[in-house]
Design a protein that fits this description.
By secondary structure, the protein is an alpha+beta fold. The chain has 2 domains: 6-69, Winged helix-like DNA-binding domain superfamily/Winged helix DNA-binding domain (Arc Repressor Mutant, subunit A), CATH 1.10.10.10; 81-234, Chorismate lyase-like (Chorismate lyase, 3-Layer(aba) Sandwich). It is built from 8 helices and 10 strands. The strands form 3 sheets. It has a 6-stranded antiparallel beta sheet. It has a two-stranded antiparallel sheet with strand order 1-2. Helix 1 (6-19) packs across helix 3 (43-56) and helix 2 (32-39) crosses helix 3. The two termini are 34 Å apart.
């Protein structure tokens, strides 16, 4: 697995300081230049780390004034996810705690829906990936993902057992630009009953998304499903966005 990016390491350091009370809520963080010098990284790396913490709802930026600490979101539980993160489950909850069971991994031609979502021709091959994501061994999320083979070459089971997003960002140097996301409630299907240990007609929370690269090319169409009592999504809104 690729080494963790510097900005993720910086984000983890700053997040721990926030959680430990080193940086207290409603107080400004040190400026980017100071943090860059202390942590021996570039200001761009610090900026990317702060952008990630802002998406998580831990800090907010005020134009002309700097970056301020919000602290942990009061209504967010440990397993909940900000609805706007791009980092992937392993980076969000910790790569040592998250494991992946590969249920399906095939290369095939896309159906009409996948062609539409990923802007592909019927002759453009895609990966069809279904994984069960476990947290500390317990089933948490059932993911079904389609990705164009030409944009994500050489995907293999070793990568799928770890983090696809790390492979995209660090190995292939792909950068995300936009994600369209729809969150809805539905009922448990056969897959949910088998892999999420859901009961028939249990409520299921589904996140459907299309992720685009920074050049506008769709790179992922996926659904992520979890039992109603296992995980929620949190939205942060501030006037500084």
């Amino acid at each position: 697995m690729a080494a963790e990016a510097k900005y993720l390491k910086v984000a983890r350091i700053l997040q721990k300081r926030i959680e430990d009370g080193v940086y207290k809520p409603q107080t400004p963080l040190p400026d980017q230049k100071t943090l860059a010098e202390e942590l021996h990284v570039s200001r761009l790396t610090v900026k990317k780390a702060l952008d990630g913490l802002q998406r998580k709802g831990l800090v907010y930026k005020e134009s002309g004034l700097g970056t301020f600490v919000l602290g942990p979101i009061p209504i967010q539980d440990k397993f909940d996810s900000p609805a706007n993160v791009f980092s992937g489950l392993a980076n969000l909850l910790g790569s040592n705690e998250v494991t992946s069971d590969i249920i399906e991994f095939n290369v095939e031609f896309p159906n009409e829906d996948v062609q539409h979502y990923l802007k592909l021709k019927s002759s453009d091959p895609v990966y069809n990936i279904r994984r069960l994501r476990r947290l500390e061994g317990k089933p948490l999320i059932l993911e079904h993902t389609f990705m164009p083979v030409n944009l994500v070459p050489d995907l293999n089971e070793d990568i799928l057992h770890n983090s696809i997003y790390n492979y995209l960002h660090h190995n292939l140097k792909l950068k995300f630009g936009v994600a369209y996301r729809k969150i809805k409630a539905t009922k448990a299907d056969d897959w949910d009953q088998q892999y999420l240990q859901a009961k028939k007609d249990d409520p299921i929370l589904e996140l459907e998304q299309i992720v685009l690269l920074n050049n506008g090319q769709p790179v992922e169409y996926s659904t992520s499903r979890n039992r109603y009592n296992e995980r929620n999504y949190v939205v942060l809104e501030t006037t500084s966005f």
